[in-house]
Every structure is written in structure tokens, then in C-alpha cells.
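hey can u check if this looks right to u? its 91 residues, i copy pasted from the old doc so theres a chance i mangled smth
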Amino acid sequence: MSWFVLEQRYLDQDKRAATRAAHLDYLGEQAAAKRLVAAGPWVAGTGSMIIYDVADEAAARALWAADPYTTGGVTELLSIREWNPVVHREG
């Protein structure tokens, strides 16, 4: 498996508020399935970062595409990069 870092920008804060619960449920499902490493918004509230642990970029893109924030028009993908974490905290 590989880690993929996705950076996204928020397009609509009203849609974000309306879709937040579904988005968090979705991320919770991905975390339970061990596909989500971490996710969260930038402090400025302009967007967020998601780190997926999946087989390839296509799998990361598929997870992003199924996210309620994506399907609801809340975000746009700015970048996706495979990341090689050499040191990280377990747990």
C-alpha cells in the first residue's frame, strides 16, 4: 500500500456546512477500513488535506470522488501526490 496526500479547496461554505455530517461519516468509514490515515481542514478554512493508504493513485482518486464533499460540489482537488513517510508516529 502507498500513502497519497490530497489537497483540496473549499468552493462553497454553505454547502460545506450542509454536507459536513455526511462527509465526516464517510471519512469515519474510510478510517475504520484502514484506508484513511488522516484528514482535516487548514486553519484558515480555505480547504483541507486528506491522506489515504491505498494501492494506487486511481484508488485514492476514487475515494475522493465518492466523498460527499466532492459529490456535493463543496471541494475541488488541487493536488494529489504519492508520499513516502520515512518517519511517523504509530497509533
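The helical segments are 13-32, 57-66, 68-71.
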